Structure prediction request, 92 residues.
Amino acid sequence: MLCTVTELCRKDVINVDTADRVGFITDVEFDMTTGELVHLLVSPGGGFFKPRPPVKICRKDICKIGEQTVLVKNVPPPPPPGGRRLAGLFGK
Prediction:
């Protein structure tokens, strides 16, 4: 099965350890000397006002790339929500 990067970025990423949806692929890192895939960069979402940094998933942690999903393991936990809150109009 052949897959382009554009098609890969349309697939949902699922953690096989917890059965949770991790997010969707936003970018791919390749090793330019070997041409091998190194990392998938997965956006966990978060919305417009609270964007979260992408999660890096190593190639060795990719279990299966299917037609609609990518199954992965050993997903690092998301960083705790942080940042400044808007005061005034939206509360304290």
About this structure: The helical segments are 5-8.
